Amino acid sequence: MNKGFIFLIVAFFISALVIVGLSIMIFTDNVKNNDNGYHEIFIPTGSDYSDVEQIFIDQDIIKNIRSLDWVAYRMNYPNTIEPGKYIISNSLSNRELIKQLRNGYQEVAVKLLITNIDSKKELFAVVSKTLEADTIELDFIFNDNDFLTSQNLTADNSWAIVLADTYLFNWDTDGKAFFDRMRNEFNKFWTTERTEKAKLKGLSPIDCVILGSIIEKESIKTDEYSRIAGVYINRLRDDWPLQADPTIKFALNDQGIKRVLSKHLEVESPYNTYKNTGLPPGPIGLPQKTTLEAVINAEHHDYMYFCANSDFSGYHIFATTLREHNKNAKKYQKALNKSNIY
Asked: What is the rounded CA–CA span in Å between residue 13 and residue 155?
């Protein structure tokens, strides 16, 4: 047989093997299957290809890491890495996987639920569990006096811009981007109409958040929020102390207090609304938007006092005079004593 012909035959088979090998590396499934049907990965900001490769190794996602490397470099992935959260389906080929990861293609948004937050520290912990922003970064931004001054905020009230709600974020959101998003959401909520309504009651948007945070901790009955708001607005108007027990618990950093006693009222704090008139310097929680609406649309009435109903229904009894209020308060205190709540 002609040697040249044999050479061509051998070359053909070698080429065919190379093509088959390349096809296997590029197009054959290389992502391991699991019971979920997918793998969830997080690529931190600043990661290089070796970091991404290590994530795949640590989570045991890839069948053949070397074939992935070969495809990744030829698709220029090491120069196009984007941080974020990704959902990697089972049975993807190297080409499909790199295509999904490259330039942040198919980055998955994460859901951030902000509700029942009682302090800035708790807010930072909740955010850092869902987003890449860590508590140190968040603490710096929400307490940076120079930056907050430019935003017409203070370290005490800066977290008031975070409206309780559910949000979608890219996982790789940093602290500044989180602040900016919350500021934008706050500004969108505070329309001209809402702002003007609040202004007529002598309140700014931040004031409404502070007042709303107190009201939510005063009562579990949302249908009386606007009436309670009316009492506090009357007190602010007449320069009376708010005398709101929840602010005492906040000042003492003790939400477990069941009954605020005279000794508790001695705490030296700008959040002690028994010793200080006006609103405290910041919120004592993050109220729901419906609570803010209750403040904006507070009832107009003559009530100056309220106390919990002695039937422990969760509702309150309202009064216009101190004499009437003392009568209601005495009845409630008697009920507390009878129930051994001290």
From this structure: 73
Tokens of 251: 């000042």
Q: Which helix (H) or strand (E) holds 87?
A: strand 84-89
Q: What is the mean pLDDT of residues 117-144?
A: 97
The amino acid occupying position 22 is L
Mind listing the pLDDT tens digit for each residue in 257-316? 887 888 999 999 999 999 999 999 999 999 999 999 999 999 999 999 999 998 889 999
Q: Which residues of 77-102 are buried (b: 16+ CB within 10 A; e: fewer)?
A: beeebbbbbbebeeebbbbbbbbbbb
How many whole angstroms separate alpha carbon 272 and alpha carbon 247? 6
Residue with tokens 């970091």: 51
Continuous segment of H or E residues that includes residue 55? helix 49-58
Asked whether 285 and 216 are in contact (CB, 8 A), the reply is: yes
With both helix axes pointing from N to C terminus, report the angle between 65-74 and 49-58 in degrees, rounded to the nearest 10: 150
**Beta-ladder partners of 167:** 112
User: Under DSSP, is residue 322 helix (H, G, I), strand (E, B) or coil?
Assistant: helix
Structurally, at CATH architecture level, domain 26-104 sits in 2-Layer Sandwich (3.30)
Structure tokens at 285: 């929680």
H-assigned helices in 59-191: 65-74, 94-101, 120-130, 135-143, 145-150, 175-189
Cβ–Cβ < 8 Å for 86, 43: yes
Closest by Cα among 243, 275, 235 to 260: 243
Residue 198 structure tokens = 């609040």
pLDDT in tens, 261-270: 889 999 999 9
* Cα 270 to Cα 268: distance, rounded to the nearest angstrom: 7
Residue ranges, CATH 3.30.1490.480, the chain:
26-104
Q: Is 76 helix (H, G, I), strand (E, B) or coil?
A: coil
What value does the mean pLDDT take over residues 235-250? 96
pLDDT digits (tens, 9 = 90+) for 16-71: 444 444 444 445 788 999 988 999 999 999 999 999 999 999 999 999 999 999 99
Cut 0.90: pTM above it: no
Cβ distance 157 to 283 under 8 Å?
A: yes
Does position 198 have pLDDT exceeding 90, yes or no?
A: yes
